[in-house]
What does this fold into?
Amino acid sequence: MTVTLTTTPSPTPRPRTAPGAPAGTRPHGSAGAHPRGRAGARPRTPSQGGPPRTAPRALPPHTVFAERLLAVLSGERPVHWMLGHTVGEAYEQLVLLAPRTPLRSLGPRPVLRRCSVQVHPGSTAVEAFATIATGPRVRAMAFRLERGADQRWRCAAVELDGLDGGGRRP
It folds into this structure.
């Protein structure tokens, strides 16, 4: 049985603007200027009967690796940034792929749109795929993650939009 998990990065919240006003200006008045409740009252902690605090949700490993690979392939980070996060031929694939990738253009910054993973039960490896938007163009990236004896995930293979590990079309 194969299980597919999908994550979509949440969009960044847009700043509030006054209707009809230039972007970045705040509405006039006191709306949102003060917290609700008694004036000067501090928020209640869980021990005082307030709502329980939750830790921020961590991103799944395949999404973290997709963001890391995108940073390297777009030129935002150097290839050696992935040294401790790769095994086997994956680092050599990145060295050959990164300088020739179409994600290194002077246009808009590439953005991770969607990242999914196929989990094979009983296996220590997963195969992930992501879609990357660069302006109106959408590209595909596939990679393999393997879990080592130390329980850390490492990238074992990378392919981008039909380019092989040497940066060439097959």
About this structure: The first strand starts at residue 3 and ends at 7. The longest helix spans residues 61-73. The radius of gyration is 22 Å. The mean pLDDT is 79.
